[in-house]
Amino acid sequence: MTDLEKPRSDRAAQAWPSIVKWDFGQSRQSFRLALSLRTTIIVYCCLTVGGVFLGRNWPVIESRLGLWEFGDAFRAWLHPIAWTRGDKSFIRGEREIRARHFTEALSAYEDALAAFGEAGIEKRQADALVRIGFSEYGRGHYDDARTAFRKALQRYAQIDNPLGRSNAWLGVGEVERLLEHDDAARTAYREAARFASLSQQSLASGNAHLGIGRIEARSGREEDAKAAYREALTSFELAKNLSGQASAWASLGDLHRRHGRADAAHEADEKALALYQKADDRLGQATTLYGIGEFATEQRRDDEARIAYRSALSLFSLIGERSGQANTLIRLGEIERSNGNDEKAGVYFRNALALFEQIDSRRGGAGSLHALGTIEARSGREAEARSAFREALTLFEQSGDRLWQAIALNDLGASEARSGRKSEARAAFLAAAMRFDEAGKKDRADAARKSAAGLEQITPRRRR
């Protein structure tokens, strides 16, 4: 999961002396920081401030100070058991999400959300919703992830928390980028950058500009992408975040590769890998190698791609990152399939499917099933192909991925047509066209409608 901006504990300790002196101007910023921490200082501040204001005109004081944090502190003082239960669940979720155990993390964060709701602590509820969003994202449940991020945005807006809004908008951007909704993703990342600037937090700014750069790169806007990556790199350097710096260099390397600057790309990749190694970030190293493999695949340099993917797979396996392992197996399978090695490709795809099922990744499982369906179709096993495409479609629908729903429907329609099932084929092609339209792929939608209209020209293929 992306490192999210968090205030620092050494500054949080400033809260207590200024509260004792009733110096609210001095304590305002430091108390904001203290209340976002999961350490003993937050318990101390919550209990103390709750005691200080007990029996006073709380709404008037809170309104005059403009500090929603004091309200949360008082509610924590009134509900210590629920607050403690929520805090423990949140910490458990952080541990699980760092280990990439997204289902377990989701359960922990949902427990935290319920407990913080019982205590009436708005900010912690919003924090839990952001983590729920990233857990759902990790599981491939993109509609659920988007919903959680949107709920968090509403709560953060109510308490005027710009850092929280930046983190939530970042989550929305990640979902929309993966679903190839580039305009929506660009808007979300820009909002994340705007609120990061308002909160003056460098790590949040780096994350947002990294997302902007990736969208601009995919849209062919090289200079805009380069500027965004440079801004991200500067922000990560200010935050002293080595993994973020490495991500920015890796993205610059990818940009150089796509524009034919092999030497510059190699230099950027070397800087990224060195920074990841310095940070002891094996996941980052694996992700960089995976990206190198992707580009080599696009350039049809299959041997080079295999080497990069196998190196990435080794690192993913070493740290137990099953999602990374599965995605890398899919890529290796695609290389074999493109070279006509369907049997070997099928082994890769089935192994990937097993891993995706272990982590309850609907999107990953759907992709594996779709890949298996293409092999079955190419071998003339149309019944098996249709079964795989239908299973994939169900999972794509559950994940909310409109584009891949359309692709699965289109391939299902082609299989139905080859089997002489024209009515079923027509329905699948028209449904695919509708999904392509929803995904903003007009050319592909028109092609699907053309396929539906041209069914009379298709001769059924005999089953082998």
UniProtKB/TrEMBL annotation:
<feature type="region of interest" description="Disordered">
    <location>
        <begin position="440"/>
        <end position="464"/>
    </location>
</feature>
<keyword id="KW-1133">Transmembrane helix</keyword>
<keyword id="KW-0812">Transmembrane</keyword>
<feature type="transmembrane region" description="Helical">
    <location>
        <begin position="35"/>
        <end position="55"/>
    </location>
</feature>
<dbReference type="InterPro" id="IPR019734">
    <property type="entry name" value="TPR_rpt"/>
</dbReference>
<dbReference type="InterPro" id="IPR011990">
    <property type="entry name" value="TPR-like_helical_dom_sf"/>
</dbReference>
<feature type="compositionally biased region" description="Basic and acidic residues">
    <location>
        <begin position="440"/>
        <end position="449"/>
    </location>
</feature>
<protein>
    <submittedName>
        <fullName>Uncharacterized protein</fullName>
    </submittedName>
</protein>
<keyword id="KW-0472">Membrane</keyword>
<dbReference type="Pfam" id="PF13424">
    <property type="entry name" value="TPR_12"/>
</dbReference>
